């Protein structure tokens, strides 16, 4: 069928069942056998029998033929229904279809590990695929795409061997990753472009169709819609194989929060684990275990849970400083992957802060770091009563001389800019999870800083520095109406604390380019950001629009709100909360190596103890930094990064599953079909939810259902005809009218079809009434005697 | 003989008895048990004919007047004269041979036994009973007589009778009319499977002679119900015709035809003032006799189409 004209043809999902069509001859055979078997008897009232036979013979023959026809049709309809027919404009005929390219797009996220009976959803999905691709012909091509970001076992180059696909399917196991539909459809797009079958492409989407993945909101939805829409122009056939049946209740550890921050030696810390109950899961009674440094510390049960989540708090005190491993585990739940969550924290004796002075001045008060230092020095360790912040001050030139890895936070106070080497040092500091405060002021060279900031991260810096305001007379205050960030939260709803009376007369206006990566914590009263938090993969960074000295305004030297905000800024910069910057399974781990030490090799030891050796590479062409990258995080847990040098302590990184993937709530496939796959060139079929590994049929193609119902209806009609021909005839007419109305409603709309059906029914009722009346009259005439 | 049980009237049980006489006696004895015998009334002796004397004859009946005139010994023979004569006409055509239950009676056996019983009852009442057995032709004929030998004669004739050949009910009724001139009662036991117009003419002739006529239409239950389910090859009795029929499809039409026939039969009889009754061959004899002898109204025509299940 190389011509361009697509001919409507019939295909069958289960052609083997067409053998059942042969059963349609059974009624005929029975009829013939029945005719050959008869009894004999003598009969006296022959003339009455002969007369009745003469009158009835024609009618009788028609009746018998009708019953025979209905029997044959019923068997044929049922056999055809079980063969799951569907209309297809790609097949030239049932027996001689042209080769097709079957692309199996398989959900291998951890939600597919949910047990249904003795099997996982993934096992059922694989079995459904095996059923769907049975009956291949020479020339059929096969590809496999996994819906998680991992390229596990994929067949991106089509294979013409079905056993290769089956072998890959056999080996496939659920990952601990989440579905990434954007990536999936991007790969599908490129695969379709290289398809060996330009016209006959069939895509099997095998998934549990979680609402979270398939019905995203906002920009995620737009992205997905645009990604799927890019497949337009292709004549595709999609088949949704839904394996999202069974119990959707699931428990997951969604968050670990440790307070207060920073975490200090000897100070009691509260570890709060959030347990999320999805799909109506019962939280009460769930046993939760806390492990610290791989040792079980405590086990508690959730009680009196209200709603879909519960917080369980554990109190723990660390006696020594260093990196510590924390994990919280649900001891018993059917979906294993999201039952445990991991976090690494730094327990500190004190917070070491390096303040870099950018404005040399004779007077201490004129130094840009002075007021920051003064504010931090007021904070004491709650147990040892020693200063919590160990502050070291240097100037821009001295920055190169300090081992920066010893400092948790670096404050760049009113620096004109950073040279390339200093920029690399800051970048490395941030990549190792350090905190950075950038204070802009009268010394700031906007051009230099713009270059510097864009080199601090792989991504473009989300904040742009703008030229200073020309007007010298203008002053600004702070907007105190939206104080939601933890740094300024204490001032929310507390008028009279001084924040509203601060006056700023010199600033470097900041502009947020990307609100996803930058958040204005504090705004000036003209709406311009005064304090901005920048999201980075590892470390934390805050940027101010004004200097923390007297040159920029009265806030730092005179206003009472400055010291607490300064302290909260540094607390925030050293806090370790499982937030946006956490590593998820499937994401790569990366880091920058120190400039001053040569690391020939980095070893990564995964949670099961397997060691991977990585050769560091140059971070970028201009940068002196060398980086390492590990992209094989396939399971959650603690990964140890070993640099192989005694002077560089190993790092521990926690990698978690995305707890949202544990929400097994299914989406509506009809909605998905209508909203995402509405392209008229596409033939989209959905199966009922597969619970037993059997593909029950296609809801989208109701032909088999129609045939099934029609076959069953004809069987009922046959029984009625045999019992009483008149009743059977009425039943047959009813079935015919009903089927006609249903079919016509597809073409001319339901209202005219129903009207036509009612009209025909009324006519039939009149005929029947007439027949009944004539019978009644005859009976009345008989009753004379 | 001991009093028979009520089941003695059951045609199916009576069919097990081989001899007609025995069957008839059982019914008659059973029926008469408990009945009050009425006194003989209107009994007289009327001369019938002479017969030459033979040694051993009773000398009381020698007609001495004749001896005086002719010098020969003749015996006077007398005929019992009654005020009631009943002629039993039994249809012995081939159609009467039908019986749906091999263990039960055919229509002919039932008619024959019914005639035997009625004859016995009539004669026991000192009335005269005669018999005519016919099919296409007259097979047997016995004039109506009331002497005790008549019962034996009738029973013998009934026993000898064989059902065969087609029916010619109309001509036979004419024949009976010619032979049975004295006004009396005529009991016709037949399935009436013949031309109703011919029957009408025959009955009209009999009515013309002022006979009291009763038609006992004897039918097999299968003819009234048509209970066949499987395809059946029907071999015609009287009519040499075979018909292969799927009974389920034709049952309704057959019953309509048969119902019409019954209605026509009843209408014919009613028009002529003839009493018509339908008797099923599974109907107990006592019920039939009670209906017949006590002048109860005849059974209404059953509505054969009333029950779709097929049991009228």
Can you put this structure into words, describing what you see?
The complex is a heterodimer of chains A (785) and B (312). Chain A is α/β, with parallel strands linked by helices and 785 residues long. Chain A folds into five domains: 101-243 and 669-700, Rossmann fold, CATH 3.40.50.410; 250-347, Immunoglobulins (Immunoglobulin-like), CATH 2.60.40.10; 351-571, Rossmann fold, CATH 3.40.50.880; 583-656, Immunoglobulin-like, CATH 2.60.40.10; 724-774. Helix content of chain A is 30%, strand content 25%. In chain A, strand 13 (287-292) and strand 14 form a beta hairpin. Chain A is elongated, with a radius of gyration of 38 Å. Chain A starts with 8 loop residues before the first strand and ends with a helix. Chain B has ten helices and ten strands. Chain B has a six-stranded mixed β-sheet with strand order 5-4-3-6-7-10, with helices on both faces. In chain B, strands 1-2 form a two-stranded antiparallel ribbon. In chain B, helix 2 (20-32) packs across helix 4, helix 4 (107-124) packs antiparallel against helix 5 and helix 7 runs parallel beside helix 9 (247-272). The longest helix of chain B is centred in the last third of the chain and has 26 residues, at 247-272. Chain B is elongated. The two termini of chain B are 38 Å apart. Mean pLDDT of chain B is 82; it is low at 1-6, 36-44 and 308-312. The interface between A and B is large, with 30 and 45 residues. Strand 2 (39-43) of chain A pairs parallel with strand 8 of chain B, so a sheet runs across the interface.
